[in-house]
Design brief:
Low-confidence stretches: 1-12
Mean pLDDT: 92
Number of helices: 12
Distance between the termini: 45 Å
Number of strands: 19
Largest sheet: 8 strands, antiparallel
Helix content: 10-25%
Shape: globular
Amino acid sequence: MFPTRRSNNTNPIFSENFRGEIVEPDTRRYEELRLLFNGQIDARPSLILLCRGVSDVCEALAYVRTHDLEFVIRGGGHSVAGRSTIEGGVVIDLREMRSVRVDTAKSQVSCEPGATIGDLDRECSLFSLATTGGIISCTGVAGLVLGGGLGWLMGRYGLSCDNLVSATVLLADGTIVEASKNNNSDLLWALRGGGGGFGLVLEFTLQAYPLGKVYCGSTIFDFSKSSTVLTAYADFVETASDDLTLDCVLFTDANGSKRIAIDGCFAGENTSSDPTIDNIINMPEAISNDWTWQEYWKFQRSNDDDLREGRRSYWKSAYVKNFNRDFVDRVIAAFETVPSAHTIFTFDHLHGKVMEFDATTSAFGHRDYKNLFLINANWNSDTEDADNFRWVRNTYTELGLHETDSSYINYLGRDEDGRDGAAFDSSVRKRLSEVQRKYDKQFLFSRPISDD
């Protein structure tokens, strides 16, 4: 038996050099560590290896490789699909490796693989710097970057993956390499939104930018105004400057009333440079407007309560090809039947700098779409599972989202393992397959990527 907490380990099948915790089932610590952000995921790993440094990660990887054990890597644990845990396998847990280092001379920020967006934002803010980083502060940096990385600054600075300058990567054979413009550039390309599966990233270095306060907030309307608001939103995303990133959210408020909101973050210096902001704020019949200048890292935490840890979740997403009246009507009709008050619909606004990158610079796909739609279902009890799963799947079909055959890796649901390929076109899939075969010949980190 492994000890629950390693102090003086003498077990011959595991190196005495491992400084972290080896956590087994049937202990209080195990029950705490096995849980993910999504309470609907209830996997029970055979072992959790809680790493505290690079040497621990190397020892853990050598252990699972030597004994041919199934394993997953856990960073922030924010995978709604449950990809950071495994039933009966080993979890290489990196959550305690959260250090962040800011290089002001280069305007770059480096972090360990267990760091969250909140960790990154706070450290950068001390030096008046920021980089694109999600919209929920507890999101792990690793998963965000490897899957793409939408965020409030993407119009001005691109996706999180676009700002990946270099990465330190532990390969399947135990060697550690740098992926950068000058070293293993093909690996860096794949790590920029390719979804991982090429090695275990020990450190991410991202480009950061000078940023003080941002002008941000929400304009909220009664649900009865949804047709007008969604139509206006479709126009706003066409006129917004690169400094202004928007989203549109259908939700149920604390009093049980359905609402619709246009949210935004302006990262420029003077709001008068973008009339879209005033056009949103001055829309008639708004229930509330709370736009204000605020520190970016604080704004990043404003949505955390909307996706409360432990709540049961199931997501489906697709890029929107035709944001027309028929689609708007179907979205509204679908939300009228939502079975849970915690479920939201979200439209993400892709524009500006995001569109300036292409498949030669990163693996992230579908940059020609301006709107990404997410069905974000959340509920509290397992007795509600069947109804919510059924409703999400039916809604996805009724809205015609399957017709675009597109996906965003970081929004995949737990039953969509086979849809990773829909995040890329065929040429990108082919190149990803080549990179995988070069750096992970035995497919230790992931199943083979289809190149067709």
